[in-house]
Amino acid sequence: MSALFNFQSLLLVVLLTICTCTYLRAQAPTLVDRNKTGVMGLFWKAARIGERLSPYVSLACFIMAFQLIVY
């Protein structure tokens, strides 16, 4: 089943995208910062969300991991 049709999978993809973009921006800021508009701007926005809401994103990752282990 595609991640677009399953809400749990879609949420997992969004969380992993946010975490990956935030990590990439910490390691190589110019890689993410040079594309602030267009389709590639979504990755810049995901990195900003990961930076500003990091406690909530990490909590959501722990909840999702626990949910995947239990079910």
Would you give an account of this structure?
With 71 residues, the protein is an all-alpha fold. It is built from four helices and no strands. The longest helix is centred in the N-terminal third of the chain and has 21 residues, at 7-27. The radius of gyration is 13 Å and the shape is globular. The two termini are 17 Å apart. The model has no long low-confidence stretch (mean pLDDT 89).
- Structural Rg: 13 Å
Q: What is the global morphology?
A: globular
Distance between the termini: 17 Å
Number of helices: 4
Number of β-strand runs:
0
Main sheet summary = none
The overall pLDDT average reads 89
Name the poorly predicted regions: none
Structural class by sheet pairing and helices: mainly alpha
Beta-strand percentage? under 5%
What is the share of helical residues? over 70%
Reading the helices and strands in chain order gives: HHHH
Question: What's the short version?
Answer:
Involved in the early part of the secretory pathway. This protein is 77% helix and 0% strand. It has 71 residues and is mainly alpha-helical.
